[in-house]
Amino acid sequence: MRVLRAVFAFLAVVSAAFAADLKIKVVDPQSAAVSGAEVSLIPEKSGGSLQVAPTAGDGSVLFAGIADGEYQIQVLAPGFAPQTTRVTTPRSGLLTVQLHLAAATETVVVTATRTPIPAAESGASVSLLDAAQLQAMQPVDAADALRFLPGAVVDSSGQRGGLGSLFVRGGDSRYNKMLIDNVPVNDSGGTMDFGVVPLAETSRIEFSRGAQSTLYGSDAMTSVVQTFSTTGSTRTPELRFGADGGNLDTAHGFASVSGARGRWDYNFFGDQFNTSGKGPNDDYSNSSQGANVGLQLSPSALIRVRARHYNSHTGVQGEWDFNGQPLLPPDSDQQARTNDLLGSTELILSGPSGWQHRLTGFEYNHRRLNEDTVPERGCDLVNFTTFVDCPFHTVDHFNRAGFDYQGDLAERTWAHTTVGYEFEDENAFVGDTNFPPVTHGLRLNHAAYAQQVLQLHRLSAVAGGRFVHNATFGNKFVPRVALTYLALRGGQFFSGTRLRFSYATGIKEARFEEAYARGPGIVPNPNLKAEENRAFEAGLEQSLLLGKYTLSAVYFNNQFRNQIDFAIVDQKTFTGEYENINKSFAHGAEVELHGRPFSHLSFDAAYNYTSTQILEQPFAFDALHEPGQPLLRRPKHSGSLLFTYLGSRWGANLGGSFVGRRADSDFFVLPFPGVDHAAGYARVDLGGWYAIHSRVTAYLNLENALDHSYNEVVGYPALPVNFRAGLRFRIGGE
């Protein structure tokens, strides 16, 4: 035994002598640190184990105690092209890997598979806006950014802070899951107001179209929108601040302090936006604050804490201007207020043997108040003849807390497995305090999911499934399969033809007011099923001129069923309940052209054709909702255009959103026959910045630059041309 112990001790010493540490730093084309990149260390010879780890705030990652030999280093960083470097150990000093910009389909994204992957191999339609594009665009809220992405139709209720809804591939506005730093921020049942979500210190937005419930659960019926907060990256602390102003009494100020030193990185920020808008009761203000702090506990452990808070106040004019005809005066007293707080703590553990574990605890607290105190604009409380503008006081206090585990195993360079478990505690009080009782609901939900990604020569395959246990609709299994195949490698002009196909199902839980509402005229329905979407898509991508340009065309087909609507169950008392009684259909095509003709210039152009039809709606209350009619606010024709120039001294963007005629309704606000459609419109935005000094930058943004008069939602006129101009400053940093 003593001899064996001596042998093992000797082998351990020898092994340690031939083991070394390898430190890598990942930087962007401007040599700035890139945090959150996935770095894989792959032995050139078989037999060694693959290691994977994320970069810290300063862009560094350390692989400790690796054996001497030849390795391949693969870096996948969202927003950049994949980068591969070879290295031989032992090696002294820091190895720097510089990333490069890429064509749209080569760009690495995360949302499609919950792990970094080139967009062309993800089997999904994914678009993104990176930090540089957002800096040129300067969007006030998420709705203003999303409208210029392919496949997005954004409807805002007129003024700043008005309800901003997103329609994708013919789906309902509640069919889009939104995450902020991996925290879901939809109301229970999918309701999401994109018009009051500020984007201060957001490093990128990813927008994935199609049913994604396999990875993201309820509400991801037609798309997932995810934003990511900026991480501190400079060794010297950096203070950034600035202010701008414009017409409509607009004023905006912001500040942040960030850095990365030793094992720590941090970013603390605040933002304040105010405007009086156009006309009476059109004011809007939004105050937001946040923090993003990371700590490298060890080479294989990173903990990150994020928090965001935003508090908005909006004057609501209501429906008053119908396609240029002001038939009613604006509402003088209606108000909307939101107060949202979200936070998360994420622990990332790397190893052993290609494993990476993410454990996340999160909480989202949402409070919304809509109130109107003065009966006006035709409200007759005595004779009950009209209800255009009668008093109400609606509250929505929603809290979601949960835990998420995600395990990723990189078995080979061509195989990646993801498994996970999610728990959610949903608690809400919703209703009108003028008409009690206020509805209270509580849901405890569990889900487990798994996904396998295979990249075999020309074929890329993604297959996964999620098992959900929901307190309302019970148990449900949600599958997804996606295939991409490089049919032709091509040459200098036609540089690759890739075919795509995917099949998936989406689910959406009932809203609390649908599942738990009780009171005069309504009874709760504890047996509501999940709304569902059976979705498939097929298409091709053609790369041109060695990847400088990419042309893609996709056909999509969605079957929405078990849609929830209110049904009368007692004709004598007119008592009703919510039931799964509606069904609808949407199909169409998306055509996109992406290009980067020069290193500093890129463009993204898209055209969308969407045909929708109501198949079943037994309790339709007017002709627009009868079977055979198209779904409201979903245009047949829409498109987007985004040019971005990013140079060393100046940058600019030109964005266009084009939406055709679509069915809409005034919902009986006007006398019969009322309004049954909204006219098409084109909105063009311009933005640009110029570096006066390395630490002083001037910028200008124009929205609705052509000063078009239009309604995105019937009765709610959009703002005229509005501009903001300002300066931003930088102290410290590198």
Give a verbal description of the structure:
This protein has 734 residues and is mainly beta. The protein folds into 3 domains: 20-100, Immunoglobulins (Immunoglobulin-like), CATH 2.60.40.10; 105-226, Ferric Hydroxamate Uptake Protein, Chain A, domain 1, CATH 2.170.130.10; 227-732, Maltoporin, Chain A (Beta Barrel), CATH 2.40.170. Helices cover 5% and strands 58% of the residues. The chain contains 5 helices and 44 strands. The chain has a 22-stranded antiparallel beta barrel. A 5-stranded mixed sheet has the order 10-15-16-13-14. A hairpin with a 2-residue loop joins strand 28 (439-456) and strand 29 (459-470). The protein is globular. The model is unreliable at 7-18 (pLDDT under 50).
Shape type: globular
Write down the domain tally. Answer: 3
Count of extended strands: 44
Count of alpha and pi helical runs: 5
The CATH fourth-level homologous superfamily of the largest domain = TonB-dependent receptor, beta-barrel domain
- Classify the beta-strand content into a percent band: over 45%
**Low-pLDDT residue intervals, each spanning 5 or more residues:** 7-18
Q: Calculate Rg over CA atoms.
A: 27 Å
CATH topology of the largest domain: Maltoporin, Chain A
Text of the CATH class of the largest domain: Mainly Beta
Oligomer: single chain
Q: Alpha-carbon distance between the termini?
A: 58 Å
**Overall pLDDT metric:** 92
Secondary-structure content class = mainly beta
Largest beta-sheet details = 22 strands, antiparallel, barrel
Helix content: under 10%
So, CATH architecture of the largest domain? Beta Barrel
